[in-house]
């Protein structure tokens, strides 16, 4: 993996802090993961890039008037890579991409999500599903309704877009994934605080019981 090394002609953008939101791009090779990331970061479409390489980017942006520090890992789509499991453990949120003109890549989404759930030991993983290459509607193999149904099945937000055309859905997909990660972290922090408070209450209760019984 080339950490923070962009494709030719690009620079990694912005700075991140220790609380950066770590997003991972997943999906079969050739579905346009790199093109989506490049379009999001630069508003440009890059035709040529090496689909076998992995890149990571740092990016600072505004999401709902909140400063967001992002680290985006663009994987090569190789689930047999020695780094694949570590990528799934590293990320906070995951964008699973398929191509609307590639039925196999759509079927692969279920496999990726199942693997992700198994490795993370939880079905409560922050994900969005993106159907890319909607500009190739003449060669479509997956309907919008099927994409929506798959996302609903896995309780994920769904977006259909084209990295080539650069629709507004691309930015919204990244930002919605960030929001989902933030919401989940807030809920987890509240849960931990409630658990800690309950433990303290239990300890104090035992202490008072012991004192009273003595």
From TrEMBL:
PROSITE patterns: RAB, RAS. Keywords: Hydrolase. It comes from Paralvinella palmiformis. This is small monomeric GTPase. One of its GO terms (molecular function) is GTP binding. The keyword Hydrolase applies. Belongs to the small GTPase superfamily. Ras family. Pfam families: Ras (PF00071). SUPFAM superfamilies: P-loop containing nucleoside triphosphate hydrolases. Its EC number is 3.6.5.2. InterPro entries: P-loop_NTPase, Ras-related_GTPase, Small_GTP-bd, Small_GTPase. It comes from the Eukaryota. Signal peptide: none annotated. It catalyses: GTP + H2O = GDP + phosphate + H(+).
């Amino acid at each position: 993996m080339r950490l923070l090394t962009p494709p030719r002609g690009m620079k990694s953008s912005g700075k991140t802090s220790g609380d950066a939101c770590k997003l991972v791009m997943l999906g079969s090779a050739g579905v346009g993961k790199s093109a989506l990331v490049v379009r999001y970061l630069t508003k440009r479409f890059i035709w040529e890039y090496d689909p076998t390489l992995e890149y990571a980017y740092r990016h600072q942006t505004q999401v709902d008037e909140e400063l967001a520090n992002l680290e985006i890992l663009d994987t090569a789509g190789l689930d047999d890579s020695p780094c694949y499991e570590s990528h799934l453990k590293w990320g906070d949120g995951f964008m699973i991409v398929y191509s609307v003109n590639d039925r196999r890549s759509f079927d692969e989404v279920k496999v990726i999500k199942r693997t992700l759930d198994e490795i993370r030991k939880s079905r409560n993983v922050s994900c969005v599903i993106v159907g890319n290459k909607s500009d190739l509607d003449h060669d479509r193999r997956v309907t919008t309704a099927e994409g929506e149904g798959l996302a609903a099945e896995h309780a994920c937000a769904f977006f259909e877009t084209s990295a080539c055309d650069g629709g507004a859905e691309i930015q919204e997909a990244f930002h919605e994934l960030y929001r989902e990660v933030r919401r989940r972290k807030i809920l987890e922090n509240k849960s931990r605080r409630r658990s800690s408070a309950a433990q303290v209450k239990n300890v104090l209760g035992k202490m008072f019981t012991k004192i009273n019984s003595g």
